[in-house]
Amino acid sequence: MTKTYNQSPTTPEQLSLFDAGYRVMRDENRKIFARNPEGIPIYNGDNLQAAWTACDMNRFPEKYQVARQQPAPTIQKLYFAGSIRGGREMQPMYSYIIKYLQNRGYEVLSEHVGSDLDSSGEQRSANEIYMRDIMWINEADAVIADVTTPSLGVGYEVAYAQFVAKKPVLCVAQIQANVSAMIAGSSVKLLQYEHSEHLETTVDWWLMKLKAGEL
Ligand code: 6IA
Question: What is the mean pLDDT of the chain?
Fold first, then answer.
């Protein structure tokens, strides 16, 4: 069991969050976690400031409402990548986060990744699928890939988006996923999540940083 150490608040805002029951902790591997007063994990990463921001977002969601409902025009179209032939176990999570992003006003070009493909009867050839997906990555302002389920297609898309199309890329994975070293060991941003609400916060944080030009 890894030990965690509470991080002391250093600003009046952090102190107020601390007094309200929010906790930011660091473990022996210098990983940073935040929990809300109900003990629900709301941040897991490596940035102390982002952990406090996640607490603030959790406490005062209305403060972040405007930014959420009106994404900056430069980050409007997202490409979401998730396993198809690699296995569909995570499909409900893909569907959940795609709907969440759409409700926030983003256009998700690849929304089919979250749908029940078996019943959609998509009749395209492999080359048509490839050409359309590559075109969408080129058109997207950013790419978010769930890499929990290993998938050749998602790995290809992540590398293409990062190195060929030169798009901002976020990889997300469930905390217990055994993510390939070719993703976990690469320069691509990889954030882990525990459950759907935590995934929302993680994606929100990354998009907020991206729009603020801080990535
Ligand atoms: O290797 P995978 O199949 O797991 O690759 C998944 C990734 O490649 C996803 O992020 C998709 O964007 C893309 N992709 C792979 N296959 C398809 C597809 N096939 N349609 C759209 N995108 C795809 C349709 C076949 C289906 C009816 C079973």
Answer: 91
State the residue for tokens 């993703």: 183
For 83, residues 6+ apart whose C-beta sits below 8 A from its C-beta are 90, 146, 148, 149, 150, 151, 153, 154
3-7, 102-106, 115-119: the lowest-pLDDT one? 115-119
Contacts 24+ apart (CB under 8 A), 13-17: 13/52, 13/56, 14/52, 17/52, 17/55, 17/56, 17/59
The model's pLDDT over 42-62, given as tens digits with 9 standing for 90+, comes to 999 999 999 999 999 999 988
Can you tell me the distance from the alpha carbon of 143 to that of 189, in angstroms, rounded to the nearest whole number? Answer: 11
Alpha helices by DSSP H, 43-125: 48-59, 65-69, 91-103, 117-120
Is it the case that residue 2 has pLDDT exceeding 80?
Answer: no
Residue 79 C-alpha to ligand 1 middle, in angstroms?
13
Kindly state if the Cβ of 152 falls inside 6 Å of ligand 1: yes
112 lines ligand 1 (CB under 6 A): yes
| Residue nearest atom 24 of ligand 1, based on CA coordinates | 122
Closest CA to 191 of 28, 43, 23, 35: 43
